[in-house]
Amino acid sequence: MAVVPTDAPNSSVRLAGWRYPLAIGALSRVLTFVVVGTIGLIRRDPEQTVSSALLAPFGAWDGVWYQRIADYGYDPTVAHGNGVAFSPLYPMLVRYIHAYLSLSYLVAGVLVSTVCFFAAMIILYRVVENRSGTKIARRVVLLTAFFPTAYLFSSVYTESVYLLLTVSTFALLERRRLISSSLVGALAVLSRPTGILLAPSMGVRIWKDHDRRLSWRFVLCLVPLVLLPLAYVVFGAYLYYRTGNPFATQTAQAAGWGRGINVMLVLGLPIAVINGLIIGSHDLSRVMYIGDTLFAMTWGLLLLEGTIRRRLPSEYLIYGALAVLLPVLAGTYLALPRYGMGIFVVMWLAAIHVAARPRLERVLWVAMPLALVVTAVVSLGFDAYTP
């Protein structure tokens, strides 16, 4: 008679927690690689090999910058020194994989992004399932994996790494592993500036875990959070060493991309769609701006409704709100669809609404993959939209 291990049920549960996010992630990656690879073959240069053409679109847009940083570092003589506008963690990973596996920077970037995407799907599923149940967790994974700009999860972009690090920060925080959570949060800061916004959310969660009482133990638990701003300071110190300007990132963003603080854009968020319609109707070359403003409005409404109805714990809602507002404060709604896709809180809130509307969910099963294909073709095939 066979003896069943005592941990068999737990193993079965853990396997189930991996199976669904991996399956959905695999379906979205198959679709992504087929579509993007086709675009690459259609746009293939005569001297370009088939293998390089298949992956070439994944290195477009910001991907060019990350490959340059992986190759040259923050050399002020390269690309007018504007590479400092981009955070260091992702290109460091690409550079390491390039050297260790002898891959091109493009292939290394696609590999890093895709592997981190699958890891992020698993952890995201587990975090949401523990809070909201399996039904919501499945919808979150579906919405994230097939979001219109989800092809960027395999591009030479920071989306996958950032999503993995932010959701892992909260996963560790849920287990009260403050030091580990802070270390991962510090890495999130080095992957994208908005990672610093994890700190106030983590502080709120620690405050709640200490019964909302001010004590020496509470203060001591806050100490590891210093790692997040410290990561930002260390990068600034490095930039000072390389360029003589500790705020070189902000300077490059303003000089190269015209970005700076614009409070009025945040205050105008409730009328973002109207603003986008006006701009798009007067300038056909900027018609895609309507999409950016539409998603800006959508993220804002989801967070507002979620806060009023207390659909998620306050620490999640605080992070989500700040992570949406900071890019808008930079003076543009550009790339808000992409930023929102990586802010798992807004996708979580969207999943709650989808789960309550079966008809909408059936529509999304068709509409989301189709939107992913269309967005990839428009941005990578026709260069008509910058994600």
Name some characteristics of this structure.
2 domains, 387 residues, 0% strand, disordered N terminus, mainly alpha
How does this model look, in words?
It is a single chain. Residues 1-8 have low confidence and may be disordered. The N and C termini lie far apart (59 Å). The chain is built from 19 helices and no strands. By secondary structure, it is an all-alpha fold. The protein has two domains: 13-175 and 357-381, no CATH class; 260-347, no CATH class. The protein has helices at residues 8-42, 50-55, 62-72, 89-101, 105-132, 134-145, 159-174, 178-191, 198-209, 216-222, 227-243, 248-257, 263-267, 272-282, 289-308, 314-329, 336-342, 344-355, 358-381.
Shape: globular
**Percent of residues in helices:** over 70%
How would a textbook summarize the main sheet?
Answer: none
Mean pLDDT: 87
The count of helical stretches stands at 19
Distance between the termini: 59 Å
The assigned structural class equals: mainly alpha
* Domain unit count: 2
Please compute the radius of gyration using only Cα atoms: 21 Å
